[in-house]
Amino acid sequence: MVETSTRTIHWVEVLARSDWTARAAAHRARLAPYVEPHLARRGARVKHPVNDFLFTYYSHRPAQLLRWHPGFGVELADAAEYEGIRGYRDGSVTDEFLAERRVLLETLLKLLRATASREGHFGCFGLHEWAMVYRLTPEQVRHADWPLRLGATGTDRVVESHRIACSHFDAYRFFTPPAEPLNTLSPRSDDRASFEQPGCLHGNMDLYKHAFRLSPLVSSDLIADCFELAWDIRTMDMQAAPYDLAELGLDPIRIETAAGKQEYAAAQRTFAERAAPLRARLIAECERLLTLAARAC
């Protein structure tokens, strides 16, 4: 720990320029295959209902995702490129910035701990996507360029013949008005910690959101790990959705059948297993950062 006249800097290592530029380049190369096609589609005004989601639904811009950060506690030597980036001074993230994020850290830690403490539920079968188009006309459907695999009547019948138990507010809030009362749960924006559970696809996809909201306090390596998990989850989520996406090379998971339900639940368990260590890493980072913030006060 080094004290100056303006702040107290906590670091565990100083990265030489050759070291951190190599890591930054590797990070960019890792994520470019996801980002560059999205930017090309955006330039051509072509939409992709699956692969554009992480860039349009979430607020982390492509340029932000591609920029590598070492996380709080690491100083980058000879890093003039980072001057002017919010939170940085002299190659490292400041204590002042950490203090600004204290409430966010506390809120996320509460949510992440609550989610991790529960057993996963694997019986939702992705019906949230079906409830989002329930009783809509074709032009009202969010992905109107893609037909419903079972048609409007068949889609409505699936919704009406199943028990819907969506625990994730950011999925539930997109239910159509006729579908809302069909949900056996009533999650709200202010009680996420009371509902979210580790089997939920959207809850696990949101690990990416939780990670990038902590940037640049956490390593971009963790953000990239969460991004790749979210990417895979989104793909499977849309395979189980009511849309016919065969032209995109996506085989449907027919959750209206017994075999499709088994396939969905198995994939959901696999994603929960992948998400658990990422959630644990985020919890550890929140705990570490809050400890350091308390020491700096």
TrEMBL record:
Descriptive protein name: 3-methyladenine DNA glycosylase
Native organism is Nocardioides albertanoniae
